[in-house]
Amino acid sequence: ISYYAERRDRDLFIQSQLLEAARKKLEVSATRLDYLSRQDALTELANRRHFDEVMTLEWHRAARSGSPIAVLMIDIDHFKHYNDAMGHVNGDSCLRNVAQLIAANARRPGDLAVRYGGEEFLLLYPGTDKVTACAHAVRLLTALREARIPQAPGLPRDIVSVSIGIATVVPGTIMLEPEEL
C-alpha cells in the first residue's frame, strides 16, 4: 500500500509540474500573441488597434488633468506612384525607412508612433501643446530631408516627402470624444 501511495504521489507531482510548465508556455504564447496583435508587422510600429486603445486612455487622462493632447497625421506623398514605379518590395522598404524616422520622434514614454493605414502614420503626443507639436513636425521633416530616401522617377522631387497634419486639443473643452480629434 505504501508503494502505491508513494507512486501515486510521484505521479501527481510529475503531472502538476507538467501542468505548470504548460501553463507558463501558454502564458508566454498569449503575451506574444497580444503583442503581435498590437504591432504592424512591416514597420514594427503600433497598429491602429493599439492606437485606438491608447488614445482612449490618454484622452481620459488628459481630460482629468486638463492637459492638451496632440496628434500628427503623416502621409507619404505620391506613394502610389512610388509603389507603381519602384515595385512593392521597394515600397515596403520605403515604408520601413519612414517608419524608423517617425519612431525616432516618439521619445517620451507616453508618445506613440503608429502605422495607421497603407502609407499613413500617426504620432500621438500626450501633454503636448500646438507649438510643441509643430516643433515635432519640423524635426520630423528635417530628419526626412536629411535621410534623403530616393523618390521614384517621374516626380519633380528626387527624395521622398511627407505631408503632416497637426491637431491639438484639451479634451473636454471643445471635443468630448477622441474620434472628434
Describe this structure in words.
With 181 residues, the chain is of the alpha+beta class. The chain is built from five helices and four strands. The chain has helices at residues 2-37, 48-65, 79-86, 88-104, 130-147; strands at 69-76, 112-115, 120-126, 162-169. A four-stranded antiparallel beta sheet has the order 2-3-1-4, sandwiched between helices. A hairpin with a 4-residue loop joins β2 and β3. α3 packs across α4 (88-104). It is flat. The chain starts with a helix and ends in a 12-residue tail after the last strand.
Short overview:
The protein is an alpha+beta fold.
Query: Runs with pLDDT <50, length 5+?
Result: none
How far the N terminus sits from the C terminus, by CA atoms, comes to 73 Å
Count of DSSP H/I helices? 5
The percent range for helix content is 40-55%
Following the backbone from N to C, one meets helices and strands in this order, namely HHEHHEEHE
Give the radius of gyration.
24 Å
User: Would you tell me the structural class of the helices and strands?
Assistant: alpha+beta
